[in-house]
């Protein structure tokens, strides 16, 4: 399957999931309120960390290694299953302590949702197999069915007054359906084979990426845990809702391109062809990232008011600031994927380790400043993380100057939109939400078109020539 088709199916998968999750999330947020959304944010952050421990980085080995055999697959399968059961039992006993820490009666909620770990463990091998075979279309079909069914059931449950249990039902049902469909599409079943020698070999590569993931996910999720404790659960609800919109932008771009890029980088042995492939992916990533981030930045108030309502206005500021991260995080993730796929896993671990210094600094300052200032520091930390990744990409003999120029030129676009929003003389609130939406979308399209002409003129000329050739042939 070609790169374009892989990206298309991967993007379709993420976009459909995102749209359904967005609709379901909006409905549940309106029905359940900020405090329950804050609790869900805490549980999601915890689950995200535990998922990484269950994966153990071994899925990277399956995708990257060109000689994976049945013994490898079974070894990974049972290793993941062992970790999932162990972690479930551990947090069964830790749940009351977490409940006490946040002064909320959520012990039973935590214990129930973590059953999901046992269903998640087998999907790690199946997903890696499908990615390795470039069968992104089957991943897309499985994900869509699971998200649609579980989301529908969650909404119906919320209307019936199930409260936070609507989220729990959605998580468990979605994971079970995904597992069943992955088993059906992959046509692989485990057998009782386990090799400690194979596991040791796998960890020589995967352990670095596991530790990198362990540094990345927990400390990105720790902002959620920190805000909930230092500020308030209600403020965490507003932050979580804004951060979820930001994560939609990041995930749609990163997940659509990152795993496709990693699998294709891994399949190429020629260094020159790998770099050419990286340039293709980075141009696409930067273009889409800037488009999405600047649109959300300029229209944050409209997005919140239309989708959530005026009672969520506190989220507008959070969303506008966090939107800037969308310009940096996807290309940062792509750079790390390239390093991992080309045998530079040690650089990935080093980047993630150093980047967490910025996270710790934000946490320390967060104890002494307002949450508004802390959110700005979170964004600045993501910019520093990106620069670290490009530094090590450059150390691996990859030219990074054109990439850095493209990314930072986008900051000028943010500045122009900021000036237009705040100093254009237009009172966006008084002209009505529909008129405001129309004016902002038109303004954004004009400004972004100028940006495209300046930065992507060669790309546009190639596209126009292709369109002309198609017209002549018809």
The helical percent reads over 70%
Decide which structural class fits the backbone: mainly alpha
Count of all domains: 2
Q: Distance between the terminal alpha carbons, to the nearest Å?
A: 27 Å
Oligomer classification: single chain
- Give the overall shape, derived from the CA principal axes: globular
What integer value in Å does the Rg equal? Answer: 23 Å
Summarize the biggest pleated sheet.
none
SS elements, strand count: 0
Name the average pLDDT.
Answer: 80
Q: Uncertain spans, ≥5 residues at pLDDT below 50?
A: none
The number of helical elements comes to: 19
Helix-strand pattern, N to C?
HHHHHHHHHHHHHHHHHHH
Strand content: under 5%
Structure characterization notes:
The chain is mostly helical. 84% of the residues lie in helices and 0% in strands. It contains 19 helices and no strands. It folds into two domains: 230 residues, no CATH class; 202 residues, no CATH class. Helix 4 runs parallel beside helix 9 and helix 6 packs parallel to helix 8.
List keywords for this structure.
single chain, 474 residues, mainly alpha, 2 domains
What's the layout of helices and strands?
Blueprint (H helix, E strand, L loop, with lengths): L2 H30 L1 H22 L2 H7 L5 H32 L5 H7 L2 H17 L3 H24 L5 H22 L9 H35 L2 H35 L3 H28 L1 H8 L6 H9 L6 H13 L3 H22 L4 H25 L5 H23 L9 H23 L1 H17 L1
Helix pairs in contact: 1-7, 1-10, 2-4, 2-6, 2-9, 2-10, 3-6, 3-9, 4-5, 4-6, 4-9, 6-8, 7-8, 9-10, 9-15, 10-11, 10-13, 10-14, 11-14, 11-17, 11-18, 12-13, 13-16, 14-15, 14-16, 15-16, 17-18
């Amino acid at each position: 399957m070609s790169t374009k088709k892989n990206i298309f199916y991967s993007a379709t998968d993420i976009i459909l999931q995102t749209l359904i999750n967005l609709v379901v999330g909006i409905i549940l947020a309106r029905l359940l309120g900020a405090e329950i959304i804050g609790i869900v944010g805490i549980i999601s952050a915890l689950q995200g960390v535990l998922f990484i421990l269950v994966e153990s980085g071994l899925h990277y080995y399956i995708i990257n290694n060109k000689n994976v055999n049945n013994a490898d697959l079974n070894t990974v399968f049972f290793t993941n299953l062992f970790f999932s059961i162990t972690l479930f039992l551990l947090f069964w006993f830790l749940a009351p302590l977490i409940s006490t820490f946040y002064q909320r009666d959520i012990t039973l909620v935590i214990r129930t949702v973590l059953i999901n770990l046992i269903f998640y463990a087998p999907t790690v091998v199946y997903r890696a197999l499908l990615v390795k075979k470039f069968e992104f279309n089957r991943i897309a079909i499985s994900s869509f069915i699971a998200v649609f069914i579980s989301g529908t059931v969650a909404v119906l449950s919320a209307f019936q007054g199930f409260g936070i249990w609507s989220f729990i039902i959605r998580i468990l049902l979605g994971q079970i359906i995904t597992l069943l469909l992955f088993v059906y599409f992959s046509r692989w079943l485990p057998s009782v084979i386990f090799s400690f020698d194979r596991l040791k070999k796998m960890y020589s590569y995967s352990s670095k990426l596991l530790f990198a993931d362990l540094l990345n996910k927990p400390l990105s999720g720790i902002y959620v845990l920190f805000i909930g404790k230092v500020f308030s659960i209600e403020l965490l609800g507003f932050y979580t809702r804004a951060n979820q919109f930001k994560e939609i932008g990041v995930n749609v771009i990163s997940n659509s391109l990152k795993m496709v890029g990693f699998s294709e980088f891994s399949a190429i042995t020629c260094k020159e062809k790998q770099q050419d492939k990286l340039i293709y992916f980075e141009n696409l990533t930067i273009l889409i990232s800037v488009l999405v981030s600047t649109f959300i930045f300029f229209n944050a108030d409209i997005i919140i008011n239309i989708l959530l309502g005026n009672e969520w206005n506190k989220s507008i500021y959070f969303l506008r600031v966090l939107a800037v991260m969308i310009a940096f995080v996807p290309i940062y993730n792509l750079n790390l994927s390239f390093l991992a796929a080309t045998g530079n896993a040690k650089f990935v671990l080093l980047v993630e380790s150093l980047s967490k210094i910025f996270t710790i600094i934000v946490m320390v300052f967060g104890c002494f400043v307002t949450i508004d200032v802390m959110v700005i520091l979170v964004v600045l930390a993501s910019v520093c993380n990106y620069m670290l990744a490009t530094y090590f990409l450059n150390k691996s003999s990859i030219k990074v100057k054109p990439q850095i120029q493209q990314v930072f030129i986008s900051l000028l676009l943010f500045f122009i939109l900021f000036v237009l929003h705040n100093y254009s003389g237009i009172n966006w609130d008084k002209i009505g939400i529909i008129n405001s939406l129309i004016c902002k979308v038109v303004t954004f399209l004009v400004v972004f078109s100028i940006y495209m002409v300046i930065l992507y003129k060669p790309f546009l000329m190639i596209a126009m020539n292709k369109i002309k050739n198609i017209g002549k042939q018809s």
